[in-house]
Amino acid sequence: MASINLIEAFQDFKDAESIDRPTMMKVVEDVFKTLLRKKYGSDENFDVIVNADKGDLEIVRRRMIMEDDDVNDPNEEVSHSYALKISPDYEVGEELYEEVEILDFGRRAILAAKQTLASRIGDLKKNALVKKYNDRVGEIISAEVYQVWKKEILLLDEDGSELILPKSEQIPQDYFKKGENIRAVVKRVDLKNNTPVIILSRTSPSFLAKLLEIEVPEIFDGLIVIKKIVREPGERAKVAVESYDDRIDPVGACVGMKGSRIHGIVRELKNENIDVINWTSNLQLLVQRSLTPAKITNMEIDQDKNQANVYLKPDQVSLAIGRKGVNIKLAQELTGLSIDVYRDNEGEVEEFDIDLSEFSDEIETWIIDELKRIGCDTARSVLDLTVEELERRTDLEKETIEEVKKVLESEFEKE
């Protein structure tokens, strides 16, 4: 029996584990019944038998054996004399089962069948891929980096399906090499030229939410719920959580003993600072918590204007604003209010400043500690002193001080 090289087509089915055997049989049967209808006008008295393991198939034709003079429809009836040539045991009234050679359809018809079959298999694989990842939107998956491009990264999952991690969905500090395994959340499934494109993300709040779910059993079990997450990827994130069990401290459970639970997430997010706060319906208290680590002395909220005026001591203003204004920006996203920061008792907007600890990614910790030892806690407090004064009061070398000042000055130039 001619197999017409169907093994490759069947192998495609085997590779796509999400396509079940009955579906495969039905597709192959439909393709060849179409051929039969074109050649014989009907497929009713034909059986298509598929052998997926060997990659071939049989087509069996059923016809009723009639007296030689009584044959009216050659597609459904066959003469007794013809049947006797196949086997002398056949009698009038019995059914004759006869194998149809695939090659009888002709080379062009066979080629068309192969192309149709390959196309149908491709469509089924696409549909299966779309369904698989539509069901996994919001879930974390691990995939291997296959190709790194300027605007995106191509990854392969465990089944060899292609996934895309765009540059816009990568944390700014992300750097990946071919062959490396990375974790990301499934953001959405797009269709481009009728081809499914699976988009992943590492900047989405849902990525952080899923990481917390993995690290914190109480969240997975539903004892703690994440009310809201706001992020500036790679810089800072704020997570508001609430406990349904009064015996559980939601913030403590998320952070873990000595930060054991949160540290792994911080490393995954390239040292992104994560503030975990208790959610509350009390707007004033929520604003206070959202401006962590700054401590507020007074506050005025106008809910009609969605406006909050916050007063702090001078040394807390830089903490409330944060480096590049990230802390106050996230606080506004979390609370839904526009927040203005003022120096306590003066009613004037504080000159923009940044806590020195915010530069820990560019300035070594021991240098920051040395500057803090002489009372320089913020960027401006360092810039207000001359290089000579800093050299005299600290154990730092002149070159080191000049480099620190360059880093601090460049930050204010950006602002």
Would you kindly provide a written description of the structure presented here, covering whatever features stand out?
Its main location: cytoplasm. Belongs to the NusA family. It holds the Pfam family KH_NusA_2nd. This protein has 415 residues and is an alpha/beta fold. The chain folds into four domains: 7-132, N Utilization Substance Protein A, Chain:P, domain 4 (2-Layer Sandwich); 136-203, Nucleic acid-binding proteins (OB fold (Dihydrolipoamide Acetyltransferase, E2P), Beta Barrel), CATH 2.40.50; 280-352, K homology (KH) domain (GMP Synthetase, Chain A, domain 3, 2-Layer Sandwich); 356-414. 38% of the residues lie in helices and 26% in strands. Strands 5-6-7-9-8 form a five-stranded mixed barrel. A hairpin with a 5-residue loop joins strand 6 (152-156) and strand 7. Helix 2 (21-40) packs antiparallel against helix 4, helix 5 packs antiparallel against helix 8 (260-268) and helix 9 packs antiparallel against helix 11.
